[in-house]
Amino acid sequence: MTTSRSSDTDPSTTALVLIDLQEDFLAAPGLARRRAGLLAAVHWWVGQARHHGAPVVEVRTVLPDDPATWALNMREDDSPVALEGTAGAGPVAELADVATILVTKRRDDAFLGTDLLEVLQDHHVTRLLLAGVATQACVAMTAASAYAHDFRVSLAGGAVVSDDEHAHREALRWLAEEYRQDVREPREGWPTS
Fold first, then answer.
1. Which residues are paired to 129 by β-bridges?
2. How many distinct helices (H) and strands (E) make up the chain?
3. pLDDT grade, residue 9 (50/70/90)?
4. I need a labelling partner for 109 at 20 to 30 A (CA). Which of 46, 116, 128, 172 fits?
5. From residue 1, how far is each of 4, 128 by CA, in Å?
């Protein structure tokens, strides 16, 4: 007799989604000092994902060297990040050994104009655990968009940071109050429901 597991309790239906863990983002002064702790936490969550047979998706911002494709603030400030072909667009060296499913994006929302939704559906994902930078920008926009796509979302404790502590706290508060998205601490283990 074959027993099927419900997707509500199957740990492999949760995907760990790593957002913008790239040199250009982590080189910012406010994030550079948090780098070691952030990446240690990311490695811990990656280990949990592997242990539970869950997919690890890495979402990177990669922009062409064409201002017309950049976000408004980058165009107005003439300050693009993660330009295609530069070292800054690549993953941080500390994650070079982590096998992931790669999705590239051009905007804060990792679902906008990407194949992230299809990747998650192909892996029968029902829940996301988000890690990366910056809490109030790409992480929050991706979390809100995931809610619109009917995914349950948690934020990986210790593995979501910002260079602005106030904005970080406010984004976490907003996600919790508006979308019921919690911070999952390592002591709570891998999310399954």
1. 16, 154
2. 7, 6
3. confident
4. 46
5. 10, 31
147-179, pLDDT tens digit by residue? 999 999 999 999 999 999 999 999 999 999 999
Q: Which pair of structure tokens corresponds to residue 59?
A: 């979402």
Q: Specify the residue for token string 């990669």.
A: 62
Question: What's the CA gap between 3 and 13, in Å, rounded?
Answer: 16
pTM assigned to the model: 0.94
Contact assessment for residue 16 and residue 53, using Cβ atoms and an 8 Å cutoff: no
Class of domain 13-186: alpha beta
Alpha-carbon distance of 20 to 4, in angstroms, equals: 35
Contact status, residue 89 vs residue 64, Cβ threshold 8 Å: no
Residues in the chain: 193
> Does residue 175 contact residue 181 with C-beta atoms inside 8 Å?
yes
In whole angstroms, what is the distance from residue 184 CA to residue 154 CA?
6
